[in-house]
Amino acid sequence: MAHDPFHEGEIAVQERAGERDIGRRRHTIISPRIVPGALPFLAQQRLIALSVPGDDGQLWTSVWCGEPGFVGSDDGARLIVRRSLMTVAPDDPVLARLVVGRDIGVLAIELTTRRRLRVNGRIERVSPAEIVVRVRESVPNCPKYIQRREPHDAPAASRTTARTVSGRAIDDERRAFVERADTAFVGSLHPSRGVDASHRGGEPGFIRVVDPTTLRVPDYAGNSMFLTLGNFEIDPRASLAVVDFDRGRIVSVSGTARLRFTGEIAGHPTGGTGRYWELSVREWIEFDWPSAMRWERLDSSPFNPTCPHRS
Predict the structure, then answer these.
(1) HSE (side-chain half, CA atoms, 13 Å) at 311
(2) Does the model's pTM come out above 0.70?
(3) Which one in 237, 248, 262, 294 has a CA-CA gap of 20 to 30 Å to 64?
(4) For 234-279, what is each residue's pLDDT tens digit?
């Protein structure tokens, strides 16, 4: 039998979902380096999501943008972020937690074509010029649930003044922000396998605010590997960066996740999986996206379950 790269949490969730055989067949897409065919794709990207733990061990996730070439790899063994080709908010929760030797998850995503690449590894160097990650694992992902958007350079006059707010409970303003979003990025980790950053998308309202300290996210049908949920099965630490492309704002939430295989909840569809995960909010921060880019929405993913938006 071929080597099984999945850890105990991923195997447990695959079995619980009845998709163990499918996951096992797809394990060959997991690579210990960025494969040569993915290097040109990586060099073209203008948007990445990143997840990293802080000194207290809590996870945070953010989204960075830059010019083509701001992220790339020379040899597939290292991922390089070139800081001169990007801008980051001063209060960005990931930037403040970049420490050599710390695990990090990176997701490069091309919204226009719905292509994405996950890269997990360890921070090897942080300098004024670049951030270097030693690659541990690289995984291409399917295009499902990505809303297509096209980047455009925005005139300087349209850029907003940075404004940062934070809290420990979801208030009415943050509730409205979260429940109108169609795109988010989730961070998870495994004690020995490291940190992972992944995409979540759906129709506005697919993320629900259950109460001021609980968000609920449906788990739609995917690649059956359960890399994120498998991490949650072992370690509940989690983070979620919710993006408002129109306003150029991000709400990043740090907390803990709990899996719910409870069957379909009325008014909050999963597309038939009956799976959810709930994020218990420990802390959140909302900040301006400092990028000069604006993103034109082209269309929704045809795979999105119909999700009645709640006002």
Answers:
(1) 0
(2) yes
(3) 237
(4) 999 999 999 999 999 999 999 999 999 999 999 999 999 999 999 9
Find out whether 120 and 133 touch, Cβ atoms under 8 Å: no
First to last CA, the chain: 52
In angstroms, the CA 6 to CA 19 distance is 13
Q: Closest by alpha carbon to 309, among 209, 221, 240?
A: 209
8 A C-beta contact, residue 170 and residue 213: yes
Per-residue model confidence (pLDDT) at position 311: 44
* Among 110, 200, 162, 175, CA closest to 289: 162
pLDDT for 84 equals 95
Q: What are phi and psi of 83, to 5 degrees?
A: -70, -25
Q: How far is CA 186 from the centre of its chain?
A: 4
Q: Choose among 256, 267, 118: nearest CA to 195.
A: 118
pLDDT for the residue 310 = 52
How confident is the model over 76-97, as pLDDT tens digits?
A: 999 999 999 998 888 999 999 9
Tokens in use for 225? 């590997």
